[in-house]
Amino acid sequence: MKAYYHLPGLFEFYELYKEFLPLYREHREYFHDWCDIGSIYGAPADCIWGGGRVGFGEHDSKEVLKLMQEYGISARLTFSNSLVTKEHLPDKKCNELCRIFDIGRDNERSRGFGNGIIIYSDILLDYIKENYPDFYFVSSTTKVLTDFCKFENELNREKFRYVVPDFRLNKSFDNLKALSQHQKDKVEFLCNECCWFGCMDRKKCYETVSRKNLGEDCPEHYCTAPDAGQGYLFSKAMENPSFIGIDDIKNTYLPSPRKMFGTMPNMPPPILTNCIVTTFRDGIRT
């Protein structure tokens, strides 16, 4: 059984990955043998289809893809803007990204996974499926699926290979255990969310980011969490009731046959190896 980590900064942390991935391949003894890299995700700067967080990184897309192919890692483009309309679909930069990364799962260096799209908008999903058919799709956590019935409905949509619920469902073990095997195979978890567990404005926050990525002049969203003034701190994520740490993975999640964990985006490089999104491939047992 393995836990698969999905790491952020596909473009932003390119220089870090260029140094880290050779080390990861050549010195596996430095790393736990129960985990592997499932994908690396992100979007470059000025990507209007992007969402969740404002994208950073301007490294050449072809070089980014070449690095991922060299190490057999699935690249996921984070096109999770919730406000995309038909008028945004012809965007040249985003379409060029799709053209470059749409290599298909049968590519000899794709490990059979191919590349994926983390997505919110159904309009955008249908457009990409029609024009770039070799991507797989991940339903974004930016949909804030806190209601388990809605999350289950999302799992039932065959367009998605994986679905990431809101972090507050991470430990809904009774409901997770009751899912069918097919549904369990599609679940991924965001395990190190820094946001306040009681936040009621999460969708508004993501919507503001979507507007900024579209270039709109919009009011700033100010976080109202009790400790918002401290900003994002990984230590805060570790105190979150939804946090999935190493002991949780090994003792609770890993015994289940499906393990996939997603990590919080835009963490600085020193924290990167602590950030995780996780997928549990063959089901969840508790």
Brief description of this entry?
The protein is α/β, with parallel strands linked by helices and 286 residues long. It has helices at 14-26, 61-70, 92-101, 122-131, 148-155, 173-178, 181-184, 202-213, 234-239, 246-253; strands spanning 3-8, 35-42, 74-79, 116-119, 136-139, 162-163, 188-190, 260-262, 277-279.
Order of helices and strands: EHEHEHEHEHEHHEHHHEE
**Poorly predicted tracts of residues:** 266-286
- For this entry, what is the oligomeric state of its chains? single chain
Counted beta strands: 9
Helix proportion = 25-40%
Shape: globular
Mean pLDDT over the residues: 84
What is the CA-atom radius of gyration, in angstroms? Answer: 18 Å
- Report the major sheet: 9 strands, mixed
By DSSP (H or I, 4+ residues per run), the number of helices equals: 10
Which structural class best describes the helix and strand composition? alpha/beta
Strand content: 5-15%
Ends: how far apart?
A: 15 Å
Describe the structure in your own words.
- This protein has helices at residues 14-26, 61-70, 92-101, 122-131, 148-155, 173-178, 181-184, 202-213, 234-239, 246-253; strands at 3-8, 35-42, 74-79, 116-119, 136-139, 162-163, 188-190, 260-262, 277-279.
- By secondary structure, the chain is α/β, with parallel strands linked by helices.
- The protein is globular and about 45 Å long.
